[in-house]
């Protein structure tokens, strides 16, 4: 069983408002992420909230998701990742980590990473790659969960994986969405202009 965690706890300091609630094509950014996760093979899907949890829950109303609140969200991304992983059922063998500000990633890209990992279970992680650059979402096997528990501050899974190059499966993808996060007003305006 491969689950998914949507990290949606941050304060969006670069955006100036809660970026996850910003509108893109008539929906909040975070809802795009959740719907892509739900259309993928990943189950269960957990949403880690922190900043403005009630507004996040409202933006995702009606979707079959599990919500987990991270009371330590102000201490950085690592706390949300650890909160999500600690909540996963024991039968989950790996987890896909989705970022709430990357709403353009299609479910097909999530499934590509999952399928590639299932074919190479000896690997400890999998990442989508475009033009030689690592993107998101990152998949972490249960073998790494204890290492994740040691992360501090704003460090996410990427910092951990950089020291495990041989154990990381690189999955070539065609979608540049794996590299695009909408964490500034400029990036969001560009996505809206393109009709993303």
Quick summary of this structure?
The chain is of the alpha/beta class and 196 residues long. 30% of the residues lie in helices and 22% in strands. The radius of gyration is 15 Å and the shape is globular.
CATH architecture descriptor name: Alpha-Beta Complex
The level of helicity is: 25-40%
Task: Give the class-level CATH name.
Answer: Alpha Beta
The counted number of beta strands is 10
The overall number of domains is 1
Shape: globular
How much strand? 15-25%
CATH superfamily: Spore Coat Polysaccharide Biosynthesis Protein SpsA, Chain A
Topology (elements, then pairings):
Layout: E1 2-8, E2 23-24, E3 27-28, H1 29-38, E4 45-49, H2 53-59, E5 66-69, H3 77-87, E6 94-99, H4 107-118, E7 125-130, E8 133-134, E9 138-141, H5 145-148, H6 157-161, E10 168-172, H7 185-194
Parallel strand pairs: 1-4, 1-6, 4-5, 7-10
Antiparallel strand pairs: 2-3, 6-9, 7-8, 7-9
């Amino acid at each position: 069983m491969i689950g998914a965690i949507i990290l949606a706890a941050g304060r969006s300091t670069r955006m100036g408002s809660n970026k996850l609630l910003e509108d893109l094509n008539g929906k909040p950014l975070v809802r795009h992420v959740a719907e892509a996760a739900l259309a993928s093979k990943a189950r269960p899907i957990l949403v880690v909230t922190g900043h403005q949890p009630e507004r996040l829950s409202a933006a995702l109303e009606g979707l079959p998701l599990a919500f987990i609140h991270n009371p330590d969200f102000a201490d950085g991304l690592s706390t949300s990742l650890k909160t999500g992983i600690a909540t996963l059922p024991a039968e989950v063998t790996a987890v896909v980590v989705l970022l709430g500000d990357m709403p353009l990633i299609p479910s097909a890209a999530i499934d590509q990473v999952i399928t590639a990992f299932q074919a190479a279970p000896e690997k400890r992680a999998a990442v989508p790659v475009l033009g030689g650059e690592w993107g998101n979402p990152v998949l972490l096997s249960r073998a790494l969960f204890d290492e994740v528990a040691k992360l501090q501050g704003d460090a996410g899974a990427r910092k951990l994986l950089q020291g495990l190059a041989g154990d990381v499966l690189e999955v070539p993808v065609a979608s540049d969405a794996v590299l695009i996060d909408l964490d500034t007003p400029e990036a969001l305006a560009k996505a809206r202009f393109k009709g993303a």
